[in-house]
Design a protein that fits this description.
Elements (H helix, E strand, L loop, with lengths): L29 E4 L2 E4 H8 L4 H37 L13 H31 L4 H10 L10 H15 L2 H9 L9
Antiparallel strand pairs: 1-2
Helix pairs in contact: 2-3, 2-5, 3-4, 4-5
Length: 191
């Protein structure tokens, strides 16, 4: 006697059993996940975890915050270009050999500030994107923590700290960790 699917008793259980509940599954009901085969009902239950919706909220906050931090870094590049243009018009002081270095030094400082903002901002936005698809917990942690670099710019310090705190709250929840461990997108857009 062949095993039949738990959801479709008229179909054979071609994919074996669900790794979480043990229900026999057919091809239509089976979802290939990191931890093996899951049934669609187990995935729906994982999607309904009490804190899973917070992971999606956190992901949007990370994408927005990361984009704003990267945009702030780009503004330093733009502002540094304007400063360089203005400093180029100022003649160097012949009695001070270091006065000719002022434009290059200024541009170097602005470029460093820009890199410190753009890199973490882009990483945080990408981490938020992966977390939105309930994938990449390590990248989510990295994005939340590297977002603290935004504290170097006073305007982003409160939001950087708030997002890092919220990430600690959300990413340590058992239901969120279990859902992300599956490694597949949500079962339905409404979840």
């Amino acid at each position: 006697m062949d095993a039949k699917c738990g959801q479709h008793p008229d179909r054979p259980a071609d994919r074996g059993t669900c790794g979480r509940c043990g229900t026999f599954v057919c091809d239509e009901c089976a979802i290939t996940a990191r931890e093996g085969v899951l049934c669609t009902e187990c995935l729906r239950l994982l999607d309904r975890g009490p804190y899973v919706k917070h992971a999606r909220i956190l992901s949007v906050l990370m994408m927005v915050h990361g984009g704003l931090v990267a945009a702030a870094g780009l503004s330093y590049v733009l502002f540094g270009g304007f400063i360089l243009d203005e400093l180029a018009d100022i003649p160097a002081d012949p009695s001070d050999p270091t006065s000719g270095m002022l434009p290059e030094l200024t541009v170097g400082v602005f470029a460093l500030i820009a890199l410190v903002q753009i890199g973490p901002g882009v990483l945080q936005a990408l981490a938020g994107w992966r977390l939105f698809h309930l994938n990449g917990v390590v990248m989510a942690w990295a994005g939340a923590l590297v977002g603290l670099v935004g504290c170097l710019g006073c305007y982003c310090a409160p939001t950087s700290l708030a997002i890092a705190s919220y990430a600690i709250f959300v990413l340590t929840r058992d239901d969120v960790r279990a859902r992300i461990a599956v490694g597949v997108p949500p079962a339905s857009p409404a979840s």
